[in-house]
Write a structure and sequence with these properties.
Metal Binding Protein, Guanine Nucleotide Exchange Factor, Chain A; 6-stranded antiparallel sheet; 6-stranded mixed sheet; 17 strands; Met_Sox_Rdtase_MsrB_dom; EC 1.8.4.11
């Protein structure tokens, strides 16, 4: 499944399972925020948040995007090989129990097996397209968690949208004076997951019937809202609301054109995964 032409060196690694020389890879010292994609098919594999310096000479990650990487016994009978779950491209090997990070996992990946998509970019160097969606459904910690763990999501970022204040802070948003909602920006690969699938997930991880609150969190900043980026997204969300309404739900979710997204402070990002726990308030309830 070769979507993009490979160089001879890339073919040796990706197809023939060779290993690039240590400290030679172009992505070894890449420090910018963004996403690492499969060089062969363009599928998102790793996030920059999970990259660390293991001193081994190859890019190292202590986690993968859920469902993106497959483990299998290596031909040497000793190591565990990792490959792209979509196309089978050889990535490298995974090791556990080494103590580099609390996750006790090191994905040792060849730079030649990947390409890098900087945060905020809509396309890779090869033209692979991604889409963006914005969802507000109570405290953004839980909403971000569920989207971050959805296969096909490249990144999920907590932030603020829909208000009157530029560069709002968390205390300002919590005061109710800004009009912003706690919002999660979701960048996703439409070849893997559709906007409709993401919107269904959104309606099932929070209570869309609550007005300006989610459980104990009360205030306009906790409202239920989809901030659409296209007319197609609006129509899809509207159709899902009609289905929920027909099923007896009194849906309070707003549909609003997306505006400027203001990323939240660093301590809000990846909140639950950094603590090694799961959300207590955003539990998935089947509604479709």
């Amino acid at each position: 499944m070769e979507k993009y032409p490979l160089t001879e060196a890339e073919r040796r690694v990706i197809r023939d399972k060779a290993t690039e020389p240590p400290f030679s890879g172009a992505l070894l010292n890449e420090r910018r925020p963004g996403t690492y994609l499969c060089r062969q098919c363009g599928a998102p594999l790793y996030r920059s948040d999970d990259k660390f310096d293991a001193g081994c000479g190859w890019p190292s990650f202590d986690d993968e995007i859920p469902g993106a990487v497959r483990r299998q016994p290596d031909a040497d009978g000793q190591r565990t090989e990792i490959v792209c779950a979509r196309c089978g491209a050889h990535l490298g090997h995974v090791f556990t129990g080494e103590g580099f990070t609390p996750k006790q996992t090191r994905h040792c990946v060849n730079s030649l097996s990947m390409e890098f998509l900087p945060a905020g970019a809509d396309r890779s160097a090869h033209g692979h397209s991604y889409e963006t969606a914005y969802f507000a459904g109570g405290c953004f910690w839980g909403v971000e968690y569920h989207f971050r763990h959805r296969t096909g999501v490249v990144s999920a970022t907590s932030g603020y949208m829909g208000g009157r204040t530029d560069s709002p802070t968390y205390p300002e948003v919590c005061s109710g004076a800004t009009g912003h909602a706690e919002t999660v920006r979701v960048i996703f690969d439409p070849e893997i997951v559709s906007f409709e699938e993401l919107a269904r997930l959104f309606f099932e991880i929070h209570d869309p019937a609550q007005v300006n609150r989610q459980g104990p969190d009360i205030g306009e900043q906790y409202r239920s809202e989809i901030l659409y980026t296209s007319e197609a997204q609006r129509r899809t969300a509207d159709a899902l609301i009609d289905r929920l309404t027909a099923a007896g739900y009194d849906v309070a979710t707003r549909l609003t054109p997306a505006a400027t997204f203001w990323p939240a402070e660093a301590y809000h990002q990846d909140y639950y995964d950094r603590r090694g726990v799961t959300p207590a308030c955003h539990l998935r309830v089947k509604r479709f």
